[in-house]
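Local shape tokens

___
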Amino acid sequence: MEWRDAYGEDVNERVLTSVAVIFCAYLASTLLVFPVRALARKFGILDVPGGRKSHHAPVPLLGGLAIFGALVAVVGGSLYFVSNLQGSWLSRHLGASLKDISKYVLIQPKLWALLIGASFVTLVGIADDIKGVNFSPLLKFGAQIAAALVLLRAGVFMDLLNCNIYLSMLVSIVWIVGITNSFNLLDNMNGLSSGIALICSLVFLTLVMVKGEFFIALLLSAMIGSILGFLQFNMRGSLFLGDTGSLLLGYLLGAISIMARYVDSTDDSMFPVLAPLVILGLPLFDTFSVILIRLREKRPVFQGDQMHLSHRLVRIGMTRNQAVFFNYLMAFAIASTALFMINSRLLHSLLALVLVLALVAMVSILMSTQGRNGNDNVNAPQLASPIRTGAAKHVPAAQLRAQPRSPVSNHV
């Protein structure tokens, strides 16, 4: 049975190509974890136990560096070697896909802009993981804006209907920086930010496959494989994502989400343009709910606390693993409703939006019930710089050498 996209192209072959890219990225990420972990240990870039942290031994940071390296290697390698695959035995199975990839010159400026912007946020994330609370939040925020401006220079921004181009660019900057920080703030439990990024990427991949956005599908496939390679170590507690990874994943999802096209002649309404907002609904909801709580309690917006959904789930009796997987399920339930908006009638899109609102209301009720139980007395500020509440906090190497080492704990 053949499955064809919005442009009549055979999707089966493209799915096979995406699976191959996922596998290559997974393998590259898995291999890169070992040198990255050794590098973090050598230079003392570790998350040391203490305070509210649940692990009992120093854990290496910089996990995002393995994701970034795998992504660059696979995307760059695919573009470099694709010409050599033409005429090979592989071209008999992936001929049309290889032909599509060979046209990458048409989107080359956007691809380079994405990789340059990703390099910006990765370098800033590394610096943040090294310096910890001593890292300048203004520099961190400025680098995110610079990374967004690189995309704008290459023509990557939202195409808002009947709106001034400069307004579209401004909204695009706010969107990219907002999503970047949402995943940075979401990195408050082991495996949470990377796992939800994986779920959102899978839903985006399904959507762009249906819409015939093959190049974006390949980017998402490389991202998915890179996350999977890292996540298998992260779930064991042997390597943390760090700001290096949470900023990178947020930036990539924010950028890729505005590169795709969501509305075409097969749609009966403009509702599909809301798909990115729905797919990234849980990270956005978690971020805005925490900000509103801090404003209501007249505390600094970027001052760390334990008011995130994951923390509240732990306080009502869940283990940390259960809280993380509950977030996974909610992220999937909310994100997957976006698929009902694609190539659907107006009524189907409206029903999908109602379902999203119902799921958000369920989470809101769960969070407010916790508050009425009187257990929200946990707002003591953390030692965190603005735009950061991730699980990873760096302590200078000099202090680490004075602490005894113990085997890395698998406790999340």
